[in-house]
Each structure stands twice: as structure tokens, then as C-alpha cells.
């Protein structure tokens, strides 16, 4: 479970953002703006990020506040899982990223695999929908749902991408240092369970 201060900051931010989307009264707008600033103060105090950076990343969105969606493609070959090395932190992750407007989850998984690994792929089935707050990721300002989609390679070849500088397959007992913001060791263990048991039902947090 995520830390209480982070949960509170997210909830305050969500109330403020949604309130600002619908408020008409000038005094209500001021109150919601004050709530938004309080959420920024909480994050700045506990995360040691600057308030300016937090405002841009966390408190700069408009409209009704909803969770963000992260889509990850899961590919196995010879009982090993496909991972890419992220340029941002030098650690490894399943290919994937934020869901794009106009694309289905299936289309996002295929696009991200091509962009980050060089492989062309076909999406086969949904494996899991996980809420990051339950899975020991590092603290972050967003409430995120993660979708894991089983795919298979149909063409292409391993190639670095704009955001990646490594592509490789790893056995379950040989996993490299992971980019835990993107995926945890526990989550990859769950993916290997689907390799051993293809009939395993979808996991839904």
C-alpha cells in the first residue's frame, strides 16, 4: 500500500481539479485553488521535488480527475521475457507507456513494443489490470492503472528506440535491475505465472 501522505495529496488534488472544472462561484474557485496548492505543498515537503516541477507534472491538468493508464506488452521467447533498458534510469522494463488518445489498449501495446524494442507484434490477450498503489512502486503523484497485455512477435528485429538503449530476453531467475517506476519484480513473477499456466484468469485489482 502507498504511504498515507501520498494518498491524501492525490485525493486533495483530485477534489481540487474536479472542483475547478465545475465551479462557477469566484469564492469556490479560490477554495479549490487553495486545496490544489495544499496538495502541492504536501508533495514538495515529502518528496523534496520543487513546487514548480510538481505544479507542472501534478497540478497542471484540467477537467474531471481520473486515473492515468499505463499499458505494458508481455512477450515470451524460449521461456524468457522481453525487456527494454530505459535511457531515463538505465534499468529494465516491459515495453510500454501511457495510453494514447485514439488508440485501443491493444494498439498501444503493439505500438510501444515496436518503438521501444524494434519488434513487430500482435496482441493476444489481457493478463492483468493492476493499481500501482498495491504494488510497491516508488511514490509518484499520479493514480495509475497498469494493463499487461500478452503479445507475440510477428516480425522485426531487436533495435534501440528513442527512449531505450537495450533490448534483451531474460529468464525468471536472471532478471536484471528493474525500472521499478514501470514494473516491479513481483509483477514480472506474475507474468511468468502466465507462461507456466496459459489458462490462468485475468488478475484485476
Summarize the model shown.
The chain is an alpha+beta fold.
Please describe what this structure looks like:
With 205 residues, the protein is of the alpha+beta class. It is built from 5 helices and 9 strands, in the order αααβββββαβββαβ. It has helices at 4-22, 26-47, 51-57, 105-117, 185-196, and strands at 68-74, 76-77, 80-86, 92-93, 96-98, 119-131, 144-156, 164-170, 203-204. The strands form 2 sheets. A 5-stranded mixed beta sheet has the order 5-1-7-6-9, covered by helices on one side. Strands 2, 3, 4 and 8 form a 4-stranded antiparallel beta sheet that branches. The longest helix has 22 residues, at 26-47. The protein is elongated and about 60 Å long. 29% of the residues are buried. The mean pLDDT is 92. It holds the Pfam family NUDIX. Residues 66-192 form the Nudix hydrolase domain. This is ADP-ribose pyrophosphatase. InterPro entries: NUDIX_hydrolase-like_dom_sf, NUDIX_hydrolase_dom, UDP-X_N. Keywords: Hydrolase.
* Low-confidence regions: none
The rough form would be described as: elongated
Share in helix: 25-40%
Helical region count? 5
Radius of gyration equals: 19 Å
The overall average pLDDT, rounded, is 92
SSE topology string:
HHHEEEEEHEEEHE
Task: Bin the strand percentage.
Answer: 25-35%
Protein name: ADP-ribose pyrophosphatase
Cofactor: Mg(2+)
Keywords: Hydrolase
Pfam family, one: NUDIX
Supply database-style keywords:
single chain, 205 residues, 4-stranded antiparallel β-sheet, 5-stranded mixed β-sheet, elongated, NUDIX_hydrolase_dom, hydrolase
